[in-house]
Amino acid sequence: MSVLEMQRLLGKVLTNEDLRNAFLRDPHSVCQTYELTPRERESLSLIDANRFKIYAASLQEGRVSLALVAFPLTKLVLSEEGGPLVARYCKENPPLPVSSSPMFNEAMVFYSFLNKLVATGEMKSKYLRDVLEYEKNLFFIGNDVETSRSSSDFARLNREIIDNLTDEVMLDSKPIKGAHAEVVSFDYDVIELAALLAKQEMPDLETKHTYLLFSKVPNEVGIKTSKINKSTMRLILMCDGTRKTEAILSELARDNGTESKDVVARLTSACLPILRQLCKSSVITFRN
Amino acid sequence: MNYSQPKVGVGLGFRTPLYQEIMNNKESIDFLEVITDQYIYAIPEKVELLLETGKHFPLIPHGVGMSIGTDMPVDADYLQRTVDFVEKTDGPWFSDHLCFTKAPDVDIAQLTPLWFTEEMVEVVCRNVKQVKEYTDRPFLLENITYYFPIPLSEMTEAEFVTRILEKTDCGMLLDVNNVHINSVNLGFDPYEFLNSIPLERVTQVHIAGGTRMQGVILDTHGSAVSKEVWDILKFVVRNAPVKGILLERDQNYPTFQDLLDELNIARNIFNQYS
Q1: Nearest C-alpha of chain B: how many angstroms from A211?
Q2: Contacts of B110 in chain A (CB under 8 A)
Q3: Which of A247, A279, B82, B236 would you label with B132, given CA atoms 20 to 30 Å apart?
């Protein structure tokens, strides 16, 4: 077991800066907490400290570089922030073994880390939240196995029902959005922002609330991104499979302060074509 | 060892940013090496797209996360996914690195050197045996770049590599850039190293360029192939039954024509010396 113990120690010391500093100051003390033979302890104590540090630093940089493959525009915005982000990320997020794509896993952990810093106000770049959220949805929906399966399942289900999807059927069914689709609000026109950042330009945009629908294209590598308005966003968010379309429309009418038949009728004629289109593009499906 | 693998020529590491240029220059690229780990957990559409690309090129899977040197069995799920992927690509062989990347509770995620000891030879041989129980496809082991040797080894790296290749009857993916970098960083003669390993087991070769930083060369795959690496490549092609040469480029991409020029240099060496 002790070769494995030696590898465990090396892994920990290489990926944990505090432990590494302790190891390089006094290797024997750190080695004492592992079940090693005297020869293994002696070997570890003789490791070239400078080379070891260079390698450990490259591991840290490598983790963040891997994560940033998913966030190329976020990387540009982050360059404004500065600070010891890499070391802090690695310290707060030890690299645990996982049975998933290394890049997918690192990207999602990195997203959570940055998202927390944005939420707590530690990172203040004005575009960071928008760009991070935009790229996270593009990457996650485009690469997650579950969202891929969901989009294929919805496409198959909808092929079976679309020809018989009358208004009456829709009103009497429960619409549900798939895991492969997300609606997200942004503070800026994130499409314009992304286009400018992609040209390496750091723009100065005015606030402009923007709503996007991200959806995985069934059976293809690709994400469809559509600008929607706030009402459509609300409608899609209500497609959670718990209530019939009829109930959703009544609730939307109540949101408008009335349940009059005229208002419900207007909402019905406005919303049913949208729901039908969402069904055709497999963003939602209908359940009984 | 079965030496009947086909010659695949001169290829390029498949990277998404290079996709369009690769497709535009199909006639100049003999095969593509694909990183196994990018596909074994991927959505099926991504794998299908790769297999479509594979209609134009032989695909050779190359892994980075098997951790063949960890003193525990290879992750069975990882191994099964790898073998399934190898079968899908129909690669003439597949490969991973002679190193460890994982230990219990920690994923180092980079190619970390092994201790060159008898015990470690046994560990690797046991794990290679496990791999071979899953597939009959030839499995190659690649030498890594390492920045610090683990002291008090019982043998040299060349002896370690030789013992493992012979005991497991595996082929070798010889990364000549790694040989060059290690020879500079660790101070040894690369040709002495090459003369000490079983070159007759070298099936594939990697070439790449590194980056000098903090007094060492880092294996970044981010610059042009150096003269020293071309010279080592000539030596290897002259002395080993090389079936394929693969150019790795992962960052700091030059124009695609620059990559094609490097492939042409490699092809000339392959044709002239093999």
Answers
A1: 27
A2: 55, 58-59, 62
A3: B236
pLDDT in tens, B15-31: 999 999 999 999 999 99
Q: Is residue B4 in some structural domain?
A: no
CATH number for position B212: 3.20.20.150
> Which residue from A minimizes the CA distance to B100?
A7
- Structural domains of chain A in order of their starting residue, each with its CATH number: 1-47 (no CATH), 128-287 (3.90.930.50)
User: Which H helix or E strand runs over A12?
Assistant: helix A2-15
Contact A65, A133 (CB under 8 A): no
Average pLDDT, chain B: 96
Q: State pLDDT tens for residues A87-113.
A: 999 999 999 988 889 999 999 999 999
ipTM: 0.94
Interchain proximity B109–A59, CB inside 8 Å: yes
* E strands present in A19-135: none
Under 8 Å CB pairs connecting chains A and B tally to 126
In whole angstroms, what is the distance from residue A43 CA to residue A37 CA?
Answer: 10
Structure tokens at B219: 């294996």
- Domain annotation covers residue B2: no
Nearest to A3 among B41, B119, B218 (CB): B119
Number of domains within chain B: 1
Which pLDDT band holds residue B1 (cuts at 50, 70, 90)? low
Would you call A12 and B106 a contact, using CB atoms and an 8 Å cutoff?
A: yes
Question: Model's pTM, two decimal places?
Answer: 0.93
Provide the pLDDT for residue A99: 86
Q: Residues of B with CB below 8 A from A52's CB? A: 147-148
CB of B101 closer than 8 Å to CB of B108: yes
Q: Which domain holds residue B240?
A: 9-273
